[in-house]
UniProtKB/TrEMBL annotation:
Protein name as annotated: HD domain-containing protein
Top-rank lineage group of the source organism: Bacteria
SUPFAM superfamilies: HD-domain/PDEase-like
All residue ranges annotated as the HD domain in the record: 24-102
Length: 180
């Protein structure tokens, strides 16, 4: 847990790419939305940590998306959390939140029209809309519904100055989720 806390201490105040909030504010808002929906600890932890891959140091991160974060941040973050004892559910929700965007763009033209400029830019780096075959395969993921919910919260969690519980509140949920 200390390594996660340190990542937020080092990079949590960085701008959330192209949005008027910080990385930490985005994480806190996403977790709050999950909690308000009645989600379990694993889902709240995944909501809080879904972008942890953006906070990893350069030697772990690899390539960047022209100022819009880390390429494959979802996979890097999921693997980072698996190594720290988080459940496969947490990892799958995080690892697939970008796939959810690609899926929703494929399935729903109205969703594409609502994406922010930053989300449109990152979509290019993330493979664009899914193909019909990719979408059919994605729908079979056992966490499919939870992944789509996480994506919804991710899109909504961009409100400047929104009051939320503090980081320690969600770190306690993460500790429970990881069995610490």
């Amino acid at each position: 847990m200390e390594s996660i806390r340190n990542l937020f201490a080092q990079s949590g105040q960085d701008e959330y790419f192209g949005e008027p909030i910080t990385q930490l504010e985005h994480a806190l808002q996403c977790a709050l939305l999950a909690e308000q929906s009645g989600a379990d600890d694993d889902t709240i932890a995944a909501a809080f940590l879904h972008d942890i891959g953006h906070l990893l140091p350069p030697e772990l991160a690899g390539d960047y998306m022209d100022g819009y974060g880390t390429v494959d941040h979802e996979k890097l973050g999921a693997d980072y959390l698996r190594e720290r004892g988080f459940s496969e559910k947490v990892a799958q929700l995080i690892e697939n939140h970008v796939n959810a965007k690609r899926y929703l763009v494929f399935k729903n033209p109205n969703y594409f029209a609502r994406l922010s400029e930053a989300s449109l830019k990152t979509l290019e780096f993330q493979g664009g809309p899914m193909t019909a075959g990719e979408a059919a395969a994605f729908e079979t993921n056992p966490y499919f519904k939870g992944i789509l919910l996480l994506r919804t919260w991710d899109e909504q969690a961009k409100i400047p100055q929104l009051p939320t519980p503090d980081m320690e509140y969600y770190m306690a949920i993460c500790r429970r989720s990881a069995g610490y």
